[in-house]
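Please fill in the sequence for the structure shown.

STRUCTURE ENCODING:
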């Protein structure tokens, strides 16, 4: 094959990782997850009449209003993890003293016409300042090669445990769950519903878009609610440029999490408020 073909293939992998907000794609020897079949329940857009009806009747939805109040869209294709972290941190610590002020967002001259000592930056967590406390650097999140077994490799975004480490580095109490073959669909449903039924917990899912019928690679977003009548979870997608908030059937969500990502399967993180 020509050098041009390899260049195009490499670019495709790079763009797929970036816009899918995931970490490095699986090696060629690892089977790719199947896409959602036509016979499976469809994803339901939250903004539809059915989507709004599901929220109205949902019993497990303590997380919805607090998360929606702090919601923001991700800045770039690799920041689904930092965006989700910022949303959850701002929800958990809403209006608490000591919230960080992200002065990197100021432009030259922004303070020129303000009274001396006035700080115009609203205190809150941002997609930028949450990264700094974690082990994975901003450059690595955006594709700077890291060495694994002596070889350089790109690892865009966050793998599940990397994301969990970043949350804990920002002071959150978390529990990461890898959805492998030992974790049944029933166990996952019970655990996530229990979290969404409590006012002191938040659930975040890490899944592969292709496996749930969407375009893109790995993705991270918080859950807002669970509707028992349709057996579906409300995924508050942090990349509205790629997908809307959707109600995702439990089997579909579990299939999306039960996908391989670099070293192990994806899964979810439960955040507990101290």
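FILLED IN BY: designer on duty
SEQUENCE:
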């Amino acid at each position: 094959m020509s050098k041009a073909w390899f260049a195009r293939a490499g670019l495709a992998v790079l763009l797929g990782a970036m816009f899918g907000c995931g970490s490095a794609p699986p090696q060629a020897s690892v089977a790719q997850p199947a896409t959602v079949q036509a016979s499976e329940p469809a994803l339901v857009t939250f903004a539809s009449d059915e989507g709004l009806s599901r929220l109205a009747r949902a019993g497990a939805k303590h997380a919805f209003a607090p998360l929606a109040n702090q919601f923001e869209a991700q800045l770039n294709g690799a920041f689904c993890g930092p965006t989700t972290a910022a949303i959850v941190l701002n929800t958990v610590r809403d209006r608490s003293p000591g919230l960080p002020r992200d002065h990197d967002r100021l432009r030259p001259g922004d303070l020129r016409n303000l009274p001396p000592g006035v700080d115009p930056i609203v205190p809150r967590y941002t997609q930028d300042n949450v990264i700094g406390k974690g082990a994975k650097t901003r450059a690595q999140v955006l594709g700077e090669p890291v060495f694994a077994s002596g070889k350089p490799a790109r690892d865009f975004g966050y793998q599940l445990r990397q994301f969990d480490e970043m949350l804990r580095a920002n002071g959150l109490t978390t529990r990461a769950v890898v959805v492998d073959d030992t974790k049944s669909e029933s166990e996952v449903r019970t655990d996530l519903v229990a979290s969404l039924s409590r006012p002191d917990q938040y659930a975040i899912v890490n899944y592969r878009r292709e496996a749930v019928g969407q375009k893109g690679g790995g993705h991270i977003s918080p859950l807002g609610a669970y509707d028992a009548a349709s057996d579906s979870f409300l995924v508050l997608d942090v990349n509205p440029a790629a997908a809307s908030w959707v109600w995702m059937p439990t089997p579909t969500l579990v299939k999306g999490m039960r996908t391989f990502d670099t070293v192990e399967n994806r899964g979810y993180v439960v955040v507990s408020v101290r």
